Amino acid sequence: MAVRTTPPTQRISLDRSIERMRKQLAEFASFLGRGKPKCSLEEFDLETERLIGDLLGQASDLLHAYEYAELGEAAGLVNMTDEAPEGSGLDSQRQSLLQRSRVLESCVSELEARRTAAPKKTKIGRMLIGPQIAEHMSTEIRSVSQDASLREAGQLMQQWKLGSLLVTNSRAYVGVLTDSALARDVAAKGLDPRTTTVKLCMRTPVAAIEGDRPIIDAVRMMKEQATRHLAVTQDGQIIGVISVSNILRYYSGVV
Question: How much is the pTM?
Answer without folding.
Answer: 0.57
